[in-house]
Amino acid sequence: MLMLIYLTFLSLGFCNTRTEEYVILEKSHDVKAWKVQGWEKLERLPPSEEIFLNFALKQSNLKTLERVFWEVSDPRSKEYGKHLSLSKLTQLIAPSEKTISNVQAWLRSHGVQSSDCNTIFTKDFMTCRMSCESAEAMLVGAKFHRFKHAQISKPVIRSLQHYCIPKSISQHVDFVGSVLHFPVVKGQTSSKGFHREFLDNILNKDLICTGVYPIVLRERYNVSDVVGTHPHNRQSIASFLGEYYSPADLRKFFDIFGGSFKRLEKVTKVIGPNNGPPGSEASLDIQYIMSLGAMVPTWFWSTAGRHESKEPFLEWLTDISNRSEVPWVHSVSYADFEDSLDVAYMNRMNVEFQKAGIRGLTFLFASGDYGAACKNSKFRPMFPSSSPYVTAVGGTGFNHPLFGEYGHEISGGGFSNLFARPSYQNEVVEKYLKSGPHIPPTSYFNPNGRGYPDISAVCHEFWIVRSMHVETESGTSASTPTVAGIISLLNDARLQNNKSTLGFLNPFLYQNSATMYDVTAGHNEGCLPGDIGFYASTGWDPVTGCGTPNFPAMVNTAVNKW
Question: Helices 86-93 and 343-358 sit at what angle, rounded to 10 degrees?
């Protein structure tokens, strides 16, 4: 009630002026989430300090974009695989000249010139440099402060107040980035570190007997000695907020855990910074995507935010829209709670995911490590996992590498509270809701929402090398690069047979779920410690999705059926 009163006051109060009506953008954003996320507010920015803002300009032909997206992504469509080039995509969705000119005029009225702004290739994002004074004048109500977080070396600049823009401009702008949304700071996964003596023992005495390493995954998912060979295949890891990898660690990892399969031991391309101590997240991601997608050239796409006011995730997405040649498969260990984000922001991100899929790109997002999660006695879905336009990867544990898997308790999974269930999963979700074991009361979740995850893999006790020490890491951040590497090998086989890349993966997965191992045991966490969210079951379930990969069956279908 207090938030409603506050928003009403805001919309009726200082968002109106004598000369023009103003409207609030990002109304539903939780402006209090920063405290829960561990941020500390520092000083107010001086008027002359320079900041950067990202303007998401309204795009054209969005209904056509979505129609074509589904056509090129559905194996049963005659348009399947007929992906668009970046130039063709731009012709379809670029903002109108009216939108561009109106936004530029608005910027100029606040002293921001064209030379202060950069526009990406698709013309739908504009990043502008300006003084804090100009930014607060443009975005009525915003007040910029600097914030710090214990896990991030560089502070960020954000406003805790909602902002308003002229109603006439709101027709041309979806949202203004780098104002309200704080970067996601991933909590530490469970890990065990080992000292130099233990590393020496592993090297000299071959003491590896437990945990997960590349040959275990390649055997479990029947990858065997298959490696990529097509010259135009590529895969990528997205890394944020100063999570870096070490080339020396990567070499040592393969020395210890590599086995006999052929592999590249160097990253092919690094975008962005990689100049700090190696992080567990980045080390895990790069070591395992290169182990499963062996011999596929790999990019390390690091986005720390080029300035305190830049949003790393948004910067990464816009960078993809600004490059004609990018990897086909992207593994992303990034997730935020759906209820902490603005609906307009998430809707625009969904369009960005469609833009990627229509180009033949596959986005795989970790489903999160909080199980079904919970807030106020309701399950709490994660985004982008809950987006209908990405592939969400859940987590399993081993009963034994040879005897199957169970749904791991941390595996993020459930149902979106905002996005309707897409048609590609209607049948399997209806079946689960009717016959699945111990379905929670619908007061806990939205049974009509998009269910996730879509696919899973082992997520527990992965051996990595970081700072030349051996340790283990767990989480869907482990299962996601595992699946990504396998999808890269599917793409490789299709490219070798003069077929397109898989692009948006979900219609293929749901139409061919028999090519995966069905995980029928286990559950994820619910609202209380030790409480249960959802149970795994026969067929799709909101713990393990459609199952875990069986590479020979998947590649046979990918090459010979479609």
Answer: 140
